[in-house]
Amino acid sequence: MIILKRALVTGASSGIGEVFSYELAKRGYETIIVARRLERLQTISDQIERDLGVRSIPLKGDLTNENDLVEVSKLLKDVDLLINNAGFGLIGPFEDIEADREMQMIKLNIGALYFLTKKYALIRNSIGGGIINVASTAAYLPVPGMAVYAATKAFVLSLSEAVSEELQPKGFKVMVLSPGPTRTEFFDVASGGRRQLPGSMSPEEVVKRALDAFEKGKRSVVSGLINKIIASGSRLVPRAVALKAARRAFED
User: Fold this and answer.
1) Which are the catalytic amino acids?
2) What pTM was estimated for this model as a whole?
3) Got the DSSP string for the chain?
């Protein structure tokens, strides 16, 4: 198979990032897959190459580490599609969660995504490219019990929509994906294994819908009908009412 396109996927060792890696390979993309767990990445890469006959390159990288982030950014010149998926959440009262842990989340969810988006736009300024930034339905409303996480995803949503408008004349397609609850490791990490939210979608559903929307030139996509209703409704319902509803959803 002749590979005409290359994608770089962050947070590719599980969940949505892992599925992005497989689905992109099916659609003719050679992939560079990035995460901290090299052994897991190698397994995914080997399976992609074995099952699909498409080259996949595993790359160990902690995107909260400045040196690793710079090394990953050096690969962006030859990347046709950047998937900024790396991120994590924390569930709990604001005063109970360790500040150091929240700072790590801010570095990854905001800092790394901003840096790679910026570098990609600068490096490929003359040839354009594609970016999918992964936000969350939590981006549409402050969420008591996930206050900092929701704030990081609100940044992703706002930045992505603004940058999409700015970069479109230069040949860039920028889309923000806002999944609702998805059956991944996310809630195990966020809640210490205490919970999964009902009504979760599979990562396969989320990724396929996202890539279909990207190919159609969509700027922003919320996965799932119920999630779309929630995201739209959050802008119509009085703020105090919405905040109380969001708080109840994350109370033990």
Assistant:
1) 149
2) 0.86
3) ----EEEEEESTTSHHHHHHHHHHHHTTEEEEEEES-HHHHHHHHHHHHHHH---EEEEE--TTSHHHHHHHHTTGGG-SEEEE-------S-TTTS-HHHHHHHHIIIIIIHHHHHHHHHHHTTTT-EEEEEE--GGGGS--TTSHHHHHHHHHHHHHHHHHHHHHGGGTEEEEEEE--SBSSSHHHHHHTS----TTPBPHHHHHHHHHHHHHTT-SEEESSHHHHHHHHHTTTS-HHHHHHHHHHHH--
pLDDT in tens, 172-215: 999 999 997 755 555 454 445 555 555 577 899 999 999 999 99
For the four alpha carbons of 15, 88, 189 and 241, in that order, the dihedral sign comes to negative
Q: Which two tokens mark 228?
A: 């779309």
CATH architecture of 5-250: 3-Layer(aba) Sandwich (3.40)
Q: What is the pLDDT of residue 2?
A: 47
